[in-house]
Model the fold of this input.
Amino acid sequence: MGITSAIVLFAVLWFMTFLVVIPFRIQTQGDLGEIVPGTQAGAPEHHHLKKKAWITTAIASVLWVICAFVIFSGILTVRDFDFFDRLGPRPTLEQSVPAEQ
Done:
């Protein structure tokens, strides 16, 4: 995994986690009984986005470390997801070692 793919993996994990964390502990105008005229009652009054962004960063970092470990260790490879054998046969040990001259 290169630096670019590591950054992209972290960004994807961060945004997916953020979308899960956003609805937790949100206080709407309807919950507080202070509805501003012209807005919906479900509009957020206290959203705590800075705190949620830090929580998201912590969770995404842990998930990224787990994913990076799985990728670098070789526990899962692309061939493990080749259900239709489109990558061809796996190379044998003789094919992967260069011949001596």
Q: What stands out?
A: The two ends are 33 Å apart (CA to CA).
